[in-house]
């Protein structure tokens, strides 16, 4: 039986997502259109998932977020993070991450995400990992299972780790910029990313990786607090609080654009060289 034709909105959504995942985030203004001061489309009511990052500085660290932004209560997170000390045992790290995940499960800071999520998706992997992968946000499969990168993109990431890097998923840690699924697979908004940043920072503080691999433009720009396109962030080693950061394309982009796997393999080889594994 033939498939029903895809709706124009779906096709446009995929197109903008591909552009954004490829790091093409700035577009010339449309004559006569109304835009905000930074030239960015307003998110929220727009069914297109990805163009919203166009032309605005990426959200840097939560400290630069709008003063009106809601903040997760310090008295819930701080006592957990206060247990982070140098040279923690694996068991201690596991316990801190488990407690943080429990607290995150009750987080309701982002109304649009809370209304649509099945559950929060905290992170998975080795609390002692030397390498952490940071993606953008959970998709439908991840939302259903509560585990990051388990859908088709997750299978490709697993292939990159296992077949490409000769490592196992259990050796690394995998998490996202936001812990709740953005509905319709849209990008997380800057405010949502900023709200969730304490959880990302807390996770990285506990694990204390030597290397971080950002998967896609949203992850790279949010983690590094830059508005540079991923095309400009690839091919260089960046720094996040002493960890070496390599940026590459999101697996979802690679699924749609297989030729870009060549560039991702170059990024992964650079990461492996940094790790002394190549
Ligand atoms: S995305 Fe993060 S900050 Fe927003 S509701 Fe989910 S856990 Fe809370």
Describe the structure.
By secondary structure, this protein is an alpha/beta fold. The protein has one domain (74-274): 3-Layer(aba) Sandwich (Uracil-DNA Glycosylase, subunit E), CATH 3.40.470. It is 41% helix and 9% strand. The protein has 11 helices and 6 strands. It has helices at residues 8-21, 74-81, 90-105, 111-116, 140-145, 152-164, 190-207, 217-224, 230-233, 251-256, 261-274; strands at residues 124-125, 131-135, 173-176, 211-215, 238-240, 243-248. The chain has a 6-stranded mixed sheet, sandwiched between helices. A hairpin with a 2-residue loop joins strand 5 and strand 6. Helix 3 packs antiparallel against helix 7. Bound molecules: iron/sulfur cluster (SF4).
List the helices and strands and how they pair.
Layout: H1 8-21, H2 74-81, H3 90-105, H4 111-116, E1 124-125, E2 131-135, H5 140-145, H6 152-164, E3 173-176, H7 190-207, E4 211-215, H8 217-224, H9 230-233, E5 238-240, E6 243-248, H10 251-256, H11 261-274
Parallel strand pairs: 2-3, 2-4, 4-6
Antiparallel strand pairs: 1-3, 5-6
Helix pairs in contact: 2-3, 3-7
If strands are numbered along the chain, what order do they take across the biggest sheet?
Answer: 1-3-2-4-6-5
Helices, by number, come to: 11
**Strand segment tally:** 6
Small-molecule components bound: iron/sulfur cluster
**Shape verdict:** globular
Mean pLDDT level? 83
Number of domains as seen in the coordinates: 1
What is the terminal separation in angstroms? 49 Å
Strand content: 5-15%
**Spans of 5+ residues with little confidence (pLDDT < 50)?**
1-6, 25-64
CATH topology: Uracil-DNA Glycosylase, subunit E
């Amino acid at each position: 039986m033939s498939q029903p034709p895809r709706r124009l909105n779906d096709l446009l959504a995929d197109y903008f997502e591909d552009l954004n995942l490829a790091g093409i985030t700035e577009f010339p203004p449309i004559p006569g259109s109304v835009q905000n001061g930074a030239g960015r489309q307003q998110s929220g009511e727009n069914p297109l998932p990805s163009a919203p990052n166009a032309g605005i500085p990426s959200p840097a660290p939560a400290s630069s977020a709008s003063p009106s932004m809601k903040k997760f209560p310090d008295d819930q997170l701080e006592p957990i993070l206060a247990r982070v000390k140098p040279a923690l045992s694996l068991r201690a790290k596991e316990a801190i991450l488990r407690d943080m995940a429990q607290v995150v499960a009750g987080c309701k800071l982002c109304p649009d995400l809370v209304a649509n999520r099945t559950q929060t998706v905290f992170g998975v992997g080795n609390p002692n990992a030397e390498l952490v992968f940071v993606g953008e946000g959970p998709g439908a499969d991840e939302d259903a299972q509560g585990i990051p990168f388990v859908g088709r993109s997750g299978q490709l990431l697993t292939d990159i780790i296992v077949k490409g890097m000769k490592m196992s998923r259990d050796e690394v840690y995998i998490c996202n910029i936001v812990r709740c699924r953005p509905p319709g697979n849209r990008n997380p908004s800057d405010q949502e990313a900023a709200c969730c940043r304490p959880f990302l920072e807390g996770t990285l503080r506990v694990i204390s990786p030597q290397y971080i691999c950002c998967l896609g433009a949203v992850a790279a720009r949010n983690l590094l607090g830059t508005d540079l396109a991923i095309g400009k962030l690839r091919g260089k080693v960046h720094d996040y609080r002493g960890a070496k950061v390599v940026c590459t394309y999101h697996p979802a982009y690679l699924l749609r654009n297989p030729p870009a796997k060549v560039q991702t393999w170059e990024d992964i080889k650079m990461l492996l060289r940094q790790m002394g594994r190549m």
